[in-house]
Amino acid sequence: MPIKVIAFDADDTLWVNEPFFREAEEKFCSLLEDFMPAHAILKELYRTEIQNLALYGYGIKGFMLSMIETAMRVSDQKVPVSLVEKILSIGQKMLQKPVELLPGVEEVLTSLNGDYRMVLATKGDLVDQERKLRKSGLEKYFHHIEIMSEKRVEDFAKLIRHLDVAPEDFLMLGNSLRSDILPVLELGAHAIHIPFHVTWIHEQVDHEIVHERFHTVENISLAAEVIRGI
Fold first, then answer.
1. Is the pTM here over 0.70, yes or no?
2. Residues 79-88 pLDDT 10s
3. Strands 5-8 and 144-148: what pairing?
4. Is 116 exposed, middle or buried (0-12, 13-18, 19+ CB in 10 A)?
5. Distances (CA, A) of 96 to 58, 132, 145
């Protein structure tokens, strides 16, 4: 049966996101260089982020709070207020970044428009993701917008039920093997992985995926041909 619904991840699939976090991490480490080496600070920051996911979820606001918490811990509560203000500024500037579409995105959405129901299925902070979608100019292409707090099997199952399609009629396209690919394959849906050159360690998968409904393309411009061939 042909695909009926195509779901697109947003961050680092439609537009640039993760490089902004790497840039912010570098600035954060430079602020704390008197307390700890950069590699150790990054390790502490990652530990804080993972511990806080259940409280703050994904996104820049939670990242800001995790930076502040990490700074307090590595400095033994001695970090000055002026440095906390600089950390807040790092996050605020991230929230003001322009939306940079990845090459080929709008052309692919245009070519698929009308032949499939297209969905945006992303995770993160609701306000920030809505801001980026609005700035991107891509909202017009999507039949439905789903901003999730997490992308687990049960989250995709709920989305598929809402769209009233069978799993085998659903295809997810994204850059994260952990969040975009493995959950939908487990449900019996199709998935296309588009690797991005920067991936947060939490989203990385250390084993090869071999599955009859799994495809990988080098960039989104090659995805339309694969979709039509399924």
1. yes
2. 999 999 999 9
3. unpaired
4. middle
5. 17, 10, 22
